[in-house]
Each structure stands twice: as structure tokens, then as C-alpha cells.
Design a protein that fits this description.
One of its GO terms (cellular component) is cytosol. Homodimer. The chain is built from ten helices and 18 strands. By secondary structure, it is an alpha/beta fold. The protein folds into two domains: 161 residues, Medium-chain alcohol dehydrogenases, catalytic domain (Quinone Oxidoreductase, Chain A, domain 1); 149 residues, Rossmann fold, CATH 3.40.50. The strands form six sheets. It has a six-stranded parallel β-sheet, with helices on both faces. Strands 1-2-6-7 form a four-stranded antiparallel β-sheet, with no helix packed on it. It has a two-stranded antiparallel sheet with strand order 3-8. Helix 3 crosses helix 4 and helix 4 runs parallel beside helix 5. The radius of gyration is 21 Å and the shape is globular.
Length: 384
């Protein structure tokens, strides 16, 4: 973005959600200039993940309609020193300010629950024709050609990672790899079971392989995920729950691992699967990590004696990563060919086809990359 536009509104296209569960509508919107501690970003590639489907369908969630849902680079507001015009950045829903008490402690990511900018709650989007405000989503709102993001939600990347790969680090891949790295701290030679082989689950498998896990069991209803992509990303064994007969999946996992997996990861968002993953863990020290976003309110049922036997269940938000510190590390691992991102790319679609992308995501789990010519694109990720 040119320097002389930094203090002026910009008009551009955005995909606006006006009614929960209804197709997004392409609208001309006005994007206000950034205020103090904010950055205006030109979106080159963005993501569409299963979490977006969840919130898109919800009629009662913390956001409001009309809203621009979801999650490269710049226009800088006053008091911003972390990035400069022209930097390549990744916007992330989990903020890292570096100042508040939450960020003086490890593994304390934050997820804004209210619409509006995090510091003052006001909107930066409006309909160009009427001036009606449009709400943002999780501090990012990237289903638009330009967005305004608080600098605490921005991670600057060094050159070397193309935008259509860099955007994968803003959510799914980082969440999965981070869970294996930061939350579970998977040990070399250990056994792992991953429930749900979407992007997050496959990224978990890759993270566990990078950590030196010896056996990684993938559990999914789609055998393609375990036997093709999964094998390349670290899956050593595969279970299709439809093929276990009268046996529970936990029984099969215990047979495969000789008593239970050292680490189990639930990447679907089902409380019943969380319980099954917990039962698949090894007595004495088995650790279960829940990553999936659940849209329901059903409780998790775990017998108290199983907790007393030494097993544990922990939650994971954004893989326990501190974005500013950790995402550049993952980006460098991609440059050094230690981290696979290309494997997660299966489709490319234009921004105008975003509703078709939502349709495809409900049928199968896909990725779409950016349309370089028009400077904007859509990627679809899944965590289920």
C-alpha cells in the first residue's frame, strides 16, 4: 500500500455474512485507516477452516451480523514499531502483546470473544453504499481484500515463505504442530494416537514425527487421509472406526500400542471422541490433548478413578504457541525443509468463489490458495 493512502479509507471487496448459515455476500466495503497500535493489511491469501463453518452456522455466538469472518501486508498506524510498510505478515486470532501478565507466563494465548477492535471495541469496516458498520471476527476478519488488525495480532515473517504457504501458519498447521511441540511435549520413541485427520490432525502427526515419536496411529472415517497424506506426514498405523466391528476404537489403539498411547490428540471437537481418546491413553502417564472446537455443550464423561491412575486431559488453544516468538520458528523450519506445508495444498480458488468453497468444505476438506493477479484468495482448512 502506498504511503499516501495510510491515513485514508480504502474501498474494496469483502465477503460479508449477513445471516447465520446463509451464503456470504460480496459487497463493496470501506476499510478505515488504522488507529494507534493497528496495522492495515492487504490480504493475499487467507484461510477457511472448519471453525469458520462452526461460527458461520451459529445464531448465538459472541459476534454480531453483519460480520466479516476469518483469518499479508501493510499500512501502519501510530505507535506501531513492530512492522513497517511492505512487510509480509501473518494475522493471527491469538494475540501476543508482550506486556500484560498473561504473556509473562508460558502458554497463555488469548481469544477475543467480542466483536470490534480489541482496544476500543469499535469497527473498521462499513458498507460503502450506506456507511452501516460491519463487525469483525476474532480480531482478524480476512474475508476481505484489506483488513485492519491490532499489532498484537500480527506476526512479521522474513522473506522466503510464499504467501499461499505462510497463511497456513496462521491457524491449522501451527495449531497441530504446536500441540505436539508445546502442549504435549512429545518425547522421542513414544506412541501417539491422533483422532481426526483434517489439517490440524495431520499437522499434529507431523509435529509428533518431528519430535521423534516412534508410532503414530491415525483415526479417521476417511481411509484416504491415513493411507495417503497421513503416511507422508508421519502416520504409521491407521484405524477406521467403521472397521473395528464390536471393538471400541480405544481397545484397538491399546492393542496396537501395547497398552495405550503415551499421547492422544482429539482434533474433531466431539466430547464423545475426547472421552474415547482419553480411554486410548496409557494408564500411569497417558496424556490427552483436546484441540477440536465443539459447537455443543455436552460434557465430557471420564471416570474419576481413571484420573487417579495418572492419566490427564488438557485443552489446547492455537497449539499453546506464542505467535510472535513461535510462528517465525515454524516458517524457518519450512524454509529449511524440516516442516511440510505443500502437502496441505489440494485446491486453489478465487475469492469470488468463496461460497463454493464453503460448500466443498462441508463435503470434503480442502485447501485453496490465493489469486496472485487480483491480490486475494481463499484457502480452506479443516480441523475435523
Amino acid at each position: 500500500m502506498e504511503q499516501n493512502t495510510a491515513t485514508k479509507p480504502i474501498r474494496c471487496k469483502a465477503a460479508v455474512s449477513k445471516v447465520a448459515g446463509q451464503p456470504l455476500e460480496m459487497e463493496e466495503v470501506e476499510v478505515a485507516p488504522p488507529r494507534a497500535h493497528e496495522v492495515r493489511i492487504r490480504i493475499l491469501c487467507t484461510s477457511l477452516c472448519h471453525t469458520d463453518l462452526t461460527f458461520w452456522r451459529l445464531k448465538d455466538f459472541p459476534g454480531q451480523h453483519p460480520i466479516i469472518l476469518r483469518h499479508e501486508a501493510a499500512g501502519v498506524g501510530e505507535h506501531v514499531h513492530e512492522v513497517a510498510v511492505g512487510d509480509t505478515v501473518v494475522p493471527v486470532f491469538s494475540a501476543q502483546c508482550g506486556d500484560c501478565p498473561d504473556w509473562r507466563l508460558p502458554l497463555r494465548p488469548q481469544l477475543p470473544a467480542r466483536p470490534g477492535m480489541p482496544r476500543d471495541g469499535t469497527a473498521r469496516f462499513s458498507f460503502a453504499a450506506t456507511g452501516e458498520p460491519i463487525h469483525n471476527f476474532t480480531g482478524v476478519s480476512s474475508f476481505t481484500e484489506y483488513t485492519v488488525v491490532d499489532v498484537a495480532h500480527v506476526v512479521r515473517l522474513k522473506p522466503g515463505v510464499p504467501p499461499e504457504k505462510a497463511c497456513l501458519l496462521s491457524c491449522g498447521v501451527s495449531t497441530g504442530v504446536g500441540a505436539a511441540w508445546k502442549v504435549a511435549a512429545v518425547e522421542p520413541g513414544s506412541s501417539v494416537a491422533v483422532f481426526g485427520l483434517g489439517v490440524v490432525g495431520l499437522a499434529v502427526a507431523q509435529g509428533c514425527r518431528m519430535r521423534g515419536a516412534k508410532q503414530i496411529v491415525g483415526v479417521d472415517l476417511n481411509p484416504e487421509k491415513g493411507r495417503i497424506s497421513g503416511k507422508r506426514l508421519g502416520i504409521t498405523d491407521f484405524i477406521n472406526p467403521n472397521d473395528t466391528g464390536e471393538k471400541a476404537v480405544s481397545e484397538v489403539v491399546k492393542e496396537m500400542t501395547g497398552g495405550g498411547a503415551d499421547y492422544c490428540f482429539e482434533c474433531i471437537g466431539s466430547t464423545s471422541v475426547m472421552a474415547e481418546a482419553f480411554q486410548s491413553s496409557r494408564k500411569g502417564w497417558g496424556k490427552t490433548i483436546a484441540l477440536g472446537v465443539s459447537s455443543g455443550v455436552a460434557p465430557i464423561s471420564i471416570p474419576p478413578e481413571d484420573i487417579l491412575m495418572g492419566r490427564s486431559l488438557v485443552g489446547s488453544l492455537f497449539g499453546g504457541l506464542k505467535p510472535t516468538a513461535d510462528i517465525p520458528i515454524l516458517a524457518q523450519k519450512y524454509v529449511d525443509k524440516e516442516l511440510e506445508l505443500d502437502e496441505f495444498v489440494t485446491h486453489e480458488m478465487r475469492f469470488d468463489d468463496i461460497n463454493r468453497a464453503f460448500e466443498l468444505l462441508t463435503q470434503c476438506f480442502i485447501w485453496m490458495g490465493g489469486d496472485r493477479e487480483n491480490g486475494v484468495g481463499v484457502e480452506a482448512l479443516d480441523n475435523a
